[in-house]
Write a structure and sequence with these properties.
Elements (H helix, E strand, L loop, with lengths): L1 H17 L3 E16 L2 H4 L3 E12 L3 E12 L18 E2 L5 E2 L2 E17 L8 E18 L10 H4 L6 E15 L6 E15 L3 E2 L4 E2 L5 E18 L9
Antiparallel strand pairs: 1-2, 1-12, 2-3, 3-6, 4-5, 6-7, 7-8, 8-9, 9-12, 10-11
């Protein structure tokens, strides 16, 4: 299958990397602004993601590593999920007879192993374009915040019938420019990425639709613009490199 072929190619690249000496190792911490595409855009608007990664680059300019991100936003488009438990004005009545203040938010995370190639304009300078692809996992859901109000219709068990918890295997493709300053105090990166995930809803029953969750999968797509800082922890023959 295609997934097996991708995993095989990824393993071969990693084996090639391990046979080379390290050129650099670094931690990255950054922010990504993401834009959903296709079906996912019907449920959520744009979101933010904060995350970290660890990477190693070898002498042959091949690099690899691991990254993870926490996804969040207040931009939930699907506001009809509570239609069967609200009043005609769209309000939810709490156990005390008062209107309950309910907020809907997006929450999720992703984690990927990645491998790529660095294009340096000067081999004595680590700055340059870094292109990578990765395999991993994506999860997202509608976070229902009841603000600790007593709303029996939305206790912890009932929330699961509305939150659309969704996850699945994913791939991520990135192109970034990494800048290394000679002083070592100003290292940063900026770039773009695309996440493509094959996902399904993990809840068995959808309360708002009053039906069992269809046994179907969907392609979730997120386009992102990212930037962050680089914290180098090792550079081979550091005195031989020059940073601009």
């Amino acid at each position: 299958t295609m997934r097996t072929l991708i995993i095989f190619c990824f393993s071969c690249l990693c084996f090639t990397c391990f046979a080379q000496k390290n050129k650099q190792s670094a931690f990255d911490f950054g922010y990504t602004h993401q834009f959903p595409i296709g079906n996912l855009a019907e449920r959520f608007g744009d979101n933010s993601a904060i995350g970290f990664s660890f990477m190693q680059e070898k002498e042959n300019n091949i690099f690899y590593g691991i990254q993870g991100n926490y996804l969040f936003s207040n931009n939930v488009k699907d506001t009809t999920i509570f239609d069967n438990i609200t009043t005609t004005t769209g309000a939810i009545i709490g156990a005390d007879g008062q209107y309950a203040n309910i907020n809907l938010m997006e929450r999720g995370f992703d984690a990927h192993l990645f491998v790529g190639y660095a294009l340096h304009f000067n081999e004595q300078n680590l700055s340059g374009f870094y292109f990578s692809g990765g395999l991993g996992f994506l999860q997202h859901q509608i976070f229902i915040d009841t603000k600790n109000q007593n709303a029996p219709q939305l206790d912890e068990d009932y929330k699961k019938g509305y939150d659309r918890l969704t996850n699945g295997i994913s791939s991520k493709w990135e192109a970034t420019y990494r800048y290394y300053n000679k002083s070592g105090k100003f290292q940063m990166y900026a770039g773009v990425n695309m996440t493509l995930a094959y996902t399904s809803i993990q809840r068995e029953y959808l309360f708002d639709k009053m039906e069992y969750t269809p046994d179907t999968k969907s392609w979730d797509k997120l386009a992102g613009v990212k930037m962050g800082i680089i914290i180098p922890i090792h550079r081979k023959n550091e005195e031989e490199f020059h940073y601009y």
